[in-house]
Amino acid sequence: MDVRPADILVMKKPHPCGSRTMYVIRSGMDFKLRCTGCGREFMVLRNKIERHIKQIQRDTTDH
């Protein structure tokens, strides 16, 4: 799965705060994510989070 920093992940299940979207801060063997609802940052292993991703929203503007 091609997940890059600055992507927004739409998850199948919501975070405890109720938000289903996570902002990708870092990707590699694990992801550092920020919940867009409450702002909490956390690290999750790649194989654990990939099966819970419903959709990837990518910024398509050229920098």
Explain this structure to me?
With 63 residues, the chain is mostly beta strands. Helices cover 8% and strands 41% of the residues. It has 1 helix and 5 strands. The chain has one helix at residues 46-50, and strands at residues 8-11, 21-26, 30-35, 41-45, 53-57. The protein has a 5-stranded antiparallel beta sheet with strand order 4-3-2-1-5. The protein is globular. The relative contact order is 0.30.
List the helices and strands and how they pair.
Blueprint: E1 8-11, E2 21-26, E3 30-35, E4 41-45, H1 46-50, E5 53-57
Antiparallel strand pairs: 1-2, 1-5, 2-3, 3-4
Keywords for this entry:
single chain, five-stranded antiparallel sheet, globular
Order of helices and strands: EEEEHE
Percent of sequence in beta strands: 35-45%
Q: Structural class, judged by helices and strands?
A: mainly beta
Number of strands: 5
Helix percent band: under 10%
Mean pLDDT: 92
Dominant shape: globular
User: What composes the largest sheet?
Assistant: 5 strands, antiparallel
Cα gyration radius (Å): 11 Å
Number of helices: 1
